[in-house]
Amino acid sequence: MIAQRPRIALVTPNLPVPHDLARGRYIHATATELSKLAEVRVFLPQVRYPRLPAALGPRTFVHGLVADDYRLPGIDLQAYSYPAVPGLSRVGNGVVGATALAPRLRAFMPDLVLAYWVYPDGDAAVRAARAIGVPCIVGARGSDVHQRSGLLRWLTRRTLAKADSVLTVSQAMRRAVIDGYGIAPARVGCIVNGIDTAVFRPADRSSARAALGIRPDARLVAYVGRMVEAKGLRELIEAFTALAAADRQVELVLVGHGVMQAELRALAAATGLGERIHFPGGMEPPDVARWLAACNVLALPSWSEGYPNVLVEAIASGRPVVASDVGGAAEIVDAGSGLLVPARDAPALAAALAAALDREWDAAAMSRAMSRGWDQVAAETLAACRQVLGAAAVGAVACTSVPETGGG
């Protein structure tokens, strides 16, 4: 019999941390709402690297460790770390991560493990779940399936194949898991992200600009997210430079931080337009919402995406978007809310931004279209967990009812 409030161990390396406030905030929102419906403990695995020169460190995220007593509001959180060497230990990180996770799971004794991020953390979660005899769901977020090649792609495929079920955040991503990794369609579900409509909603642009120090007559393009290569930020700087040459009112704000921050500041300085490019840093959702209120259009020129929630947040705030036509972007953006362009195409990006800046948009209609809350995401996630628990219970009964055979 499945408990009314099942015990769920949620394992993910992606949660907001002091050195990267934007990291995993959608997972945090899901975990917070899921904790109202089930007994949830969130495990935050962290890779502990030896002291290495900066050139040998991680290239896709800002690395840092939080203490074991780190806390986040709304969730029961347990942070821990395990040793690794960038690149060299990749093939074994799942095994080492499982060794660190298993005793923590055993102390909690969940009914099910839910892991967000396929490899190595999803692999570690599957291994640790098997060690304590419970099922495991692996949730893929985007780049953990899209940006994989060689050995890492093989490790990702193996993890997806071992999981009891796989969850994706867009239909496009579900198809990528089925077609690209050979996972049976019946084992792959889709639960798209939600939004905090109390935070992301239409607000007065003039007031937001006054608070942020932006000129009232500026035509402001905003980017919100991590500063990493796959977000297409070099193309955005190139597109902005072309726009700025013809439009003295256009400005750009890059909200967030990441491993490319120094490079982007240098690129901005090299354009000679540095005073029109703003770098306010990473920030909490209410501050992100203020920048969205202040902007004329949001740009997201990513090379790949899962379900880019910042598009939902911008549209819910009544702001049009210009985004690369990748991942689940086409499931979010329609003719009334923005324009889609090919990835890695700076001229197309510049043209679409100019068109979006010149067009009148219906902010109220855009906002009304985005009303899916995190409580709905949590309810669907719990339903997926119950489905896996039910299948596991049926399998256990079938195994115990098999008659013994043998000699004598």
Could you explain the architecture of this structure?
Helix 7 (205-212) crosses helix 10 (285-294). This protein starts with 6 loop residues before the first strand and ends in an 8-residue tail after the last helix. It folds into two domains: 7-194 and 373-400, Rossmann fold; 205-368, Rossmann fold. Strands 3-2-1-4-5-6-7 form a seven-stranded parallel sheet, with helices on both faces. It has a six-stranded parallel sheet with strand order 10-9-8-11-12-13, sandwiched between helices. Helix content is 40%, strand content 16%. It is globular and about 65 Å long. It is an alpha/beta fold and 408 residues long. It has helices at residues 25-34, 93-108, 118-132, 143-146, 150-162, 171-181, 205-212, 233-246, 261-270, 285-294, 309-316, 346-358, 363-368, 374-400; strands at residues 7-11, 39-48, 77-83, 112-116, 136-139, 165-168, 188-190, 219-224, 250-255, 277-281, 297-300, 321-324, 338-341. The protein is built from 14 helices and 13 strands. The relative contact order is 0.12.
- The secondary structure category is alpha/beta
How many DSSP-defined strands?
13
Mean pLDDT over the residues: 92
- Largest sheet, if any? 7 strands, parallel
* Strand residue content: 15-25%
CATH class of the largest domain: Alpha Beta
Number of domains: 2
What is the CATH topology descriptor of the largest domain? Rossmann fold
CATH architecture title of the largest domain: 3-Layer(aba) Sandwich
Spatially, the strands of the biggest sheet line up as: 3-2-1-4-5-6-7
Tally of separate helices: 14
**CATH homologous superfamily placement of the largest domain:** Glycogen Phosphorylase B
